Amino acid sequence: MGWTEERVETLKKLWIEGLSASQIAKQLTGVTRNAVIGKVHRLGLAGRATPSRPAKRPRPVSRPRLATSSQSNAVARPRMAPAPYLALVPHLEPLKAADGSVTTVLTLTDSVCKWPIGDPTDAAFAFCGRGSTGTYCADHASLAFQPQQPRKKRAYGEPDELRRMMRLSAM
Question: Which residue segment(s) compose the domain that 14 sits in?
């Protein structure tokens, strides 16, 4: 079914009333929603204002917390930062063989240290080459595998302890 002048007038009237393209297509019968949208664009009918979105609610301003009785009784202790782990970086040169050659990618074996020394794009790049039972020699293993830092114990009355106590009291 084509667009007669009568159907076009009905389309314009329904469009101005604010009906959706689907609703107009149902009333005109034999026309799809996409056909209605296409005809509206070809006719140059003004687009309708989109429904207004609800305004975003302003976020509540956070107020400073008041000290609770358990926090006010806690003795304020200065916190000490944990001592950083300082590793002594050994400045080892690549091990040179009797003929003056160094360990390269082509000469790596399971029993040599595979610690890279230098810039890989440089011609002088080599691997440590010292004897090892694992991936690295003892010096380079101390760099690669640093000891785990001890866990910090919290003093009584700190926030996590307070939350735990409140959780237990609610049970």
Answer: 5-43
